[in-house]
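Ticket #4471: structure output looks truncated?

Reporter: J.K.
Steps to reproduce: submitted the chain below (247 residues) through the standard prediction queue, then opened the result file.
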Amino acid sequence: MKFLAKTCLIGGFTAAFATQAAAINITVHEDAATARTNYESTLKSGAVIEDFNDLAGTRVMGDGPHESWEGSSNAYDTDVGTFTLTDPGQPRSGNENIDQLMIESNATGEFGRSVLADDDLWLDSNDAEEVVWDLDGSLAGSGPFDSFGFQLADAADVSADLTLNFADGEGMASTTIPFELSNGNLRYVTLHSDRNIVGGQMTFNNSTVNDGWGIDNVTVGKLPEPGSLLLMGLGLLGLGAARRRTQ
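Returned output as attached by the reporter:
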């Protein structure tokens, strides 16, 4: 699987941070379908997945994709936190409700974002210059998390500035997810911290005023401890050896 990985040591940038840094690993996977399956299969029980399928309103069908949507709102409160449009993009001919996020489908969606359409809905930036995702540390009763992943489509010019608040009270830390992609793309982004995260905020900043992106299947949860993964692997090896002896 091809992917672009970026590992950042968070902490030590200012005197306010503690001496021991939290390790943040961010990976942008090109094979989005395989990456999502692999990631979700490794999470502990209790992970929360937001697919946006329950957020549709009354479908509006206009003359084109800019005039069509399944739902619209300035902010959506979801199982994985709140998405808010904080800075609209440039109004263009027929581009309506530029101050609102859209819920889209294959019937209403714009341009390259339709790669997300698998008989379901997604959240669309509606060409906003800035969208903020606020993460709660106790998502749908799951408790503190240390990992999340999501599908991102058509992110030609988007970057994402991420700020996280760690459970040990060390305060805020920030990094940037490296989105330098092409039109009509589909990627799967994963993030893992070596400490629990009790809250955070991701800001999606577009470098242009007339480009957009879609996000879907946002998953927040907790990965097993490295020791648990090692024990799982040893158990599988032992099972394989037992089968060979039986044969």
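Triage note (M.O.): checked the attachment and the full token line is present. DSSP finds two helices and 14 strands in the chain.
Status: closed, working as intended.
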